[in-house]
Amino acid sequence: MTDPTFHLELQEHEKTFLDSNELIINMGPQHPATHGVLRVILKLDGEKVLGTECVIGYLHRGVEKIAEHRTYTMFNPYVDRMDYVAAVSNGLGYCESVEKLLNVEAPPRAKYIRVILAELNRLASHMLWLGTHALDIGAITPLFYTFRDREEILKIFEKYCGARLTTHAFRIGGCLYETYEGFEREVKKFLEFVTPKIGEYEELLTTNRIWVERTKGVGTISAKDCVALGVTGPVLRASGVKWDIRKAQPYAAYADFDFEIPIGQSGDTYDRYIVRMEEMRQSLRIIAQAIDRIPEGPIMAKVPKVIKPPLGEIYHSIEAPKGELGYFIVSDGSTQPYRVRVRPPSFVNLQALDLMVRDQLVADVIAVIGTLDIVLGEVDR
Amino acid sequence: MVAKLKTHYGSGIREANTYLVQNYMIVEPSLVSELLQVLRDQELFDYCVDITAVHYPQREKQFDVIWILYSFPRNERIRVKTMIADGESVPSAVPIWPAANWLEREVYDMFGIRFDGHPNLKRILLPDGWKGHPLRKDYGIIQQDQEWVQINLGIESGQ
Questions:
Q1: Nearest C-alpha neighbor of A219 from the set A344, A321, A129, A349
Q2: A260-313 pLDDT per residue, tens
Q3: How far is B128 from chain A (nearest CA, A)?
Q4: Is A70 on the interface with B (CB under 8 A)?
Q5: Is this prediction's pTM over 0.90?
Q6: CA of A39, closest CA in chain B: separation in Å?
Q7: Which residues have a Cβ under 8 Å from the Cβ of B141 and sit 6 or more positions away?
């Protein structure tokens, strides 16, 4: 029982110490839970976050400047180094943008190969996200599970184009490589293998009490705030906005497939987890349809050896695993782009961090950074 | 929509066109602030996708500043473009779309274009004390702020 008449007499130096309840601490740039070199300056009141400031740019390589000094073809592999866990999506966005500028279209078979690889990559990206996000919160096992299964995807990439991460799988106008012998069979085998595995991850987490307590109601963001801050991808969908570029403005061959856009309601970390898990299942659905219906024919459109798009500008965007990935390309009619602007989803989504962690606990900052699913290579470019 | 805006603003909208099925308009810098507000409030462009710039050193008005907007209700994109000279500034879009905050900081960092009314206009990707704006065409590809590198990294050159 506390006695209301009792007052603790404080010494003078204790008063100043106890009154100064604002504390500035620095997280990163070398911190295991920031998924790269992200520095966050936190203003704290005890364990409560009053505000944050992100310091970024540690991984800045000047990708947009490099583009101005390379030909269109030469710049293609550079884009893989931005979001290096979803390199296929980067390449897809870039190739499609230049194709639009050239006014050519990839042949149907190339489009199907692109969709299959891009969806496999979405799966790989979400698996890596799930493993590291769960690890940050304290669940170690999912990391081993997801990395084991992601390996199978990387093996398919390696067999297809020789690279596991920075794949450079596509070329302007289509694909360079025909699918290898037994590609269809291996992808089907992978689908069979991985479908129950997603259930396994969910068994570990979805109803796990610690997981639920650490994620429900944490880092909540409303649909209105998401739109105002330009947040896209699973974060936007978890807040209840049913918007996916694959449906809204279909590119590649996405208009041919039947799939759902999973959405959440509350926009908290738990909903974002559920949305991404469901997205993985939808990706499997897309791959299964594509692999069955993959058309015969050429894989490369008629594109000149030296790519010289006519004078003009184009903005084209795709639904990367993290959100809207856009390319704004200005051509001056020469072999090198006059300007390439990349609209990175991670960069824009990271801006919402401050809003999402205000008045939350310090430990939740880790959960929110994980749930935003940022890749610093793409934030800093 | 474009016709309506054109009759309202007259020659302020210098060009409104479509290239490769993408709509864009080129407007006078003085009109930008009002037009962006109108596009969001009346034409429902509620999502500011990107803000960027392009440098044309041989032109008198050296910079293109571009706003890429998207409307969720209309499922439509539009690009708004304006041209400004070196040293001129454009109004900040942060009061209209909070998303503009970091995007404008990046344009400032890379091109040195100032946005009037931005709450915290400082460099974002490069260090605060860096000299020069790398995406200007007169900035060489291997050029760097030698002095900054020597003081802060303790090495002769980053190259």
A1: A349
A2: 999 998 889 999 999 999 999 999 999 999 998 889 889 888 888 888 898 989
A3: 11
A4: no
A5: no
A6: 12
A7: A65, A66, A68, A69
